[in-house]
Amino acid sequence: MCTPTQFYWFIIAQRNILTSNQVTKSEIISEIARKTGINKSNVQLAVEVLFRSIQSAVSERGQVHFRGFGSFLLKKRARKIARNITQNTAIIIEEHYVPSFKPSKAFIDKIKTRVKDSV
Fold first, then answer.
1. Which end of the chain, N or C, is less packed with Cβ atoms under 10 Å?
2. Phi, psi of 88 (to 5 degrees)
3. How far are the Cα atoms of 86, 93, 110 from residue 104, in angstroms, in the given order?
4. pTM higher than 0.70, yes or no?
5. What pLDDT sits at residue 14?
6. Could you tell me where the DSSP H helices lie in the chain?
7. Across the beta sheet with 63-66, what order do the strands follow?
């Protein structure tokens, strides 16, 4: 069995895993299992561990960087006044943090060239 980091790099190295406009986690797991010959349950476990590792690292440390792919990070949202339209009242939304993803320059360039080639 491979580590989550090894598994991540395997996913990055594969091309054309995602063939439709919307892909589910189970479709990715099936595709990886088919291409690698690894048991589906082991692939699912590795994907779940990878996701949980990213979630815990972002919640504890604030950032996770994958070179050539992007970064998962926390963004601070300032305190603001919003409106409740149904009751026509103002409410205060306190300062809070939200998870965010920032793609790497290489990732952005790859998307731009693919979109340009397909048009």
1. C
2. 55, 50
3. 41, 31, 10
4. no
5. 56
6. 4-13, 25-36, 40-61, 105-118
7. 63-66, 70-77, 96-103
pLDDT given for residue 23 in this prediction: 87
Do 54 and 11 touch, CB atoms closer than 8 A? no
Q: Can you read off the two tokens belonging to residue 77?
A: 């949202």
For residue 101, what is the DSSP state? Answer: E
Determine contact, residues 10/36, Cβ cutoff 8 Å: yes
Could you give phi then psi for residue 81, rounded to 5 degrees?
A: -105, 125
Helix axis angle, 25-36 to 40-61, nearest 10°: 130
Q: Is 21 part of a structural domain of the chain? A: yes
Contact (CB, 8 A) for 99 and 58: yes
Q: Tens digit of pLDDT per residue, the chain (119 long)? A: 566 665 665 665 554 544 457 889 999 999 999 999 999 999 999 999 999 999 999 998 789 999 999 999 999 999 999 998 999 999 999 999 999 999 999 999 988 887 776 65
28 lies in a domain? yes
Please count the structural domains in the chain.
1
